[in-house]
């Protein structure tokens, strides 16, 4: 299945499931008056609202590249996720306000009967299924919007558990547990919003990818037998994808065609990483005097734990007056 079809299908499934939960929880709330169930209904309503945003956003982000967007539209996804976070914050604030108002008034209706318990158990099961589904597709398709949706569904499981505690406690004659559980649900909703916003800000501000991925990028560059070293290695997010730029160091007696072949091989090796989009490689010949130490590269190379040493032109000062720091290759 193509990325386009996979993402759009997930969006529709999540929308349908959340809409069904809103109806079920809403009916149970009007039947029982449970504040915890009511807060869960509000949560599911917010989920449905942002599911509409996700469906529309995934339709845009999976459009093919065009003249104005030659790299495609995937970079829209972090903005979709931030809109999701805003909706989550609004829902969390509404639930907290209702719970605090109820606690202040001291008027709490006691909820009895299995129907409220049943709808919350069903909701938890549905949310777990959605969490696994969204997370699986998010990882395979590298989708921050679906990852945000998976996180929200995971936290909804905890929120349903808290609401269930409140309903059971109220039914056992401790009605105060109902608004207290609603408070927990509200806090869980807000925490979800913080998590979603934090994760997607990295995509928008061009943060560096995880250290393991940076190590693998460097390892692949140094794995080429003609590459003597590397420096000025920069990897950063552009939307959900990663752009890489680096200088590789080769012996200066290589022909232009040979240098081009080395550069192309390094680019192809790094682009084989599914997270990487564009790779820019600059070839530094020995005689140019541009071989240099790079502390960041040295740290990454040491972290690779290789056994063979590869130097930036040797451990002694070369003819161009630049010293070399040893690097390693796996």
Low-confidence stretches: 306-330
Tally of separate domains: 2
Helix content: 55-70%
Strand order of the largest sheet: 1-2-3
CATH topology name of the largest domain: Alpha-lytic protease prodomain-like
Structural features:
single chain; 330 residues; mainly alpha; Alpha-lytic protease prodomain-like; Alpha-Beta Plaits; 2 domains; three-stranded mixed sheet; two-stranded antiparallel ribbon; 9 helices; 63% helix; elongated; disordered C terminus
What's the quick description here?
With 330 residues, the protein is mainly alpha-helical.
Give a description of the structure.
The chain is mainly alpha-helical. It folds into 2 domains: 3-204, Cation efflux protein transmembrane domain (Alpha-lytic protease prodomain-like, Up-down Bundle); 211-329, 2-Layer Sandwich (Alpha-Beta Plaits), CATH 3.30.70.1350. Helix content is 63%, strand content 12%. It has helices at residues 3-32, 35-61, 77-105, 114-141, 144-171, 177-204, 211-222, 256-271, 295-304; strands at 229-238, 241-250, 276-285, 308-311, 326-329. Strand 1 and strand 2 (241-250) form a beta hairpin. Helix 2 packs antiparallel against helix 5 (144-171) and helix 7 (211-222) packs across helix 9. It is elongated and about 85 Å long.
